[in-house]
Amino acid sequence: MSSALATVTRAEGRPPARPRLEIRTLRLDRFVVLGDDAIAASVDQGAGAADLLAARLGVQAWNLAEEGASSRSVLCEQLPLALALRPTFAVVSVGTPEALAGLDAAATGCSAFLVPLLADCEEIVVRLRAMACDVLLVRPPALDRSPAAWLRFGRHRPSSFARDFDAALRGMERVAARWSAALERIAAQHGALLADLSRVYDVQLRSGSLLDGAAPGLPPHCGGPGDLFADPVRLSCDGAQVAAGLLEAALHPGRRALQPAARGSRIVRTRFTSEKGIPC
Questions:
Q1: CATH topology of domain 26-253
Q2: Could you report the per-residue pLDDT of 16-50, keeping only the tens digit for each?
Q3: Pair type for strands 2-9 and 20-27
Q4: 35: alpha, beta or left, given left = phi > 0 and alpha = psi -120 to 50?
C-alpha cells in the first residue's frame, strides 16, 4: 500500500507566494515503529500514537518501541529487528528517557546529553534510509512545557522560587530549541520526514481542570479525564490520539482534522525478546 505525500518547497529567490509542489509516494506495506515513551504502547494506556497512525492509514504496523528505551537500546536492540523486517516505512522517536534524566542539567541550559542521543538518532535514520525505507522522525513534546518539568520545578516550590522557576524554563527552552534544530538538520540531510509532537500542548482539553491536576501532586493537564498525559511522562489515550493526528499531519500537510481509525486495521506489537523472534 502506498500514500501520496505532497510537500511544498520554495526555490531560492522566488516569492513565497509561488510554492512548487513536490509529490512523494510513501510505501506503507511494511510499517515499523522504533522508539521510546513518546510513541510506545503501554499495558494500561493501550495503543501508542504510531499504532493509531497505522490504524488511521489502514495498514499493519510492527511496533518495537518500548517505554523507557534509551537511544542506544533503540539503535542496538530495536533497529536490528526492524531491519530484518525489510521495512518500507518507519516511525522513529528517541531521547525521552535521556531528556528526563537530564532535566536538571537542561534547566541550566546544558545540552550535553543531546550529543550521544542525536548521534544514535542519526545512525538509525541513516541505516533505515540505506534500505530505501522512508522515515518519519518524531520531535518529542517540549521539555519546558512537559508535566515532568512542571512537577519538578513548579507547583510545590515557594513563591520566592518563581524567579528560579522562570530561569529553569528558559534553560529548558534553549535546550529544546537546540534539539529541534538538530532533528531538522538530520531530517533534511537524510531525506526524512519530521513530525512535531511539541504541538500536543496546543490542543484544548475537552475536560479536566485547567488550573490543577486530578490528584494531589499531579501537574495541570495530567491524570484527569480528557487530559493529554496519564502521568508526568506518558501520553494518555486522548493524548495518543492527538499525537497520532500530528503524525498524520506530517504525512499530509494540508490535512489537520483528526479522523477515525480505518475498519479492519490491525495493530501488531512486537517486544524485544530473544525467544519471541520476528513476525513476518
A1: Rossmann fold (3.40.50)
A2: 444 333 445 788 889 999 998 888 887 677 788 99
A3: antiparallel
A4: left
